[in-house]
From TrEMBL:
Transmembrane segments: none annotated. Residues 37-56 bind DNA. Residues 14-74 form the HTH tetR-type domain. InterPro entries: Homeodomain-like_sf, HTH-type_TetR-like_transc_reg, HTH_TetR, Tet_transcr_reg_TetR-rel_C_sf, TetR_C. This is Transcriptional regulator, TetR family. Residues 208-219 have a biased composition (Basic residues). The lineage of its organism: Bacteria, Pseudomonadati, Myxococcota, Polyangia, Nannocystales. Signal peptide: none annotated. PROSITE patterns: HTH_TETR_2. Residues 200-219 are annotated as: Disordered. GO terms for molecular function: DNA-binding transcription factor activity; transcription cis-regulatory region binding. Pfam families: TetR_C_11 (PF16859), TetR_N (PF00440). Keywords: DNA-binding, Transcription, Transcription regulation.
Length: 219
């Protein structure tokens, strides 16, 4: 009778890695990021703690990869829709952002990482490079497209404009100042675009440049 193959080392490693990421996602939701430990992740995944440290330098790094591999924002295309109507497209994106932030597992993981990056500069760099940076660049590209069809005026700092769109949403989510919903996302887009749109034209009429001569002044 042939013996059962234990599997190749690479396959065993892939299985262990997947188990660790699944355990991290589950535990963040169960116990919260603050109470999550590498030991807890290892126990739930059925691996040794040193196996985790072989691949990740910290708890935050494990959660970050688990967050992305589980379909977080960085796991999907960062290109924004371009229907030809920049207001419609930006509302679609900000509504989706709000819905994602309100999803319990996403919320728990991102809040934990937001706290972690205050002291973990390497994780902060990774968060910007992999998640936030691509999102901002994609937003700038969509705003550039809107500029080309004169939906946004020339001369606008589009990097700042992109932050004006997402900043209020993340501020309200992070600090829980007021309810975060689709209506708020729509209002952020509306107010931001009001500041970015080209100035209205004069309708072809010229403004007066001086007083007309009185008939008595004409000879």
């Amino acid at each position: 009778m042939a013996s059962r193959s234990p599997g190749t080392p690479s396959r065993r490693s892939a299985t262990a890695r997947r188990a660790i990421l699944e355990a991290a996602r589950a535990l963040v939701l169960e116990v919260g990021y603050a109470r999550l430990t590498v030991e807890g992740i290892a126990g739930k995944a059925g691996v040794g703690k040193q196996t985790i440290y072989r691949w990740w330098p910290s708890k935050g790094a494990v959660v970050f990869e688990a967050f992305l591999s589980g379909g977080g924002a960085g796991g999907s295309s960062t290109e924004l829709p371009d229907s030809g109507d920049v207001e419609r497209d930006l509302k679609t994106v900000l509504r989706a952002t709000v819905e994602e932030l309100l999803e319990p597992s996403f919320d728990a993981a991102l809040r934990g990482m937001t706290a972690e990056i205050q002291s973990d500069t390497e994780l902060a760099k990774q968060l910007v490079e992999v998640l936030l940076g691509p999102q901002m660049k994609a937003t700038v590209r969509r705003l550039e497209s809107a500029q080309r069809v004169k939906q946004i005026r020339r001369g606008v700092d589009l990097d700042v404009a992109a932050e004006l769109l997402f900043g209020p949403v993340f501020h309200r989510w992070l600090l829980r100042t007021r309810p975060l919903d689709r209506a708020f996302a729509d209002e952020v887009v509306r107010l931001t675009l009001r500041a970015l749109r080209p100035a209205p034209k004069e309708g072809g009429r010229r403004a007066p440049v001086g007083r007309r001569k009185r008939s008595s002044d004409r000879s």
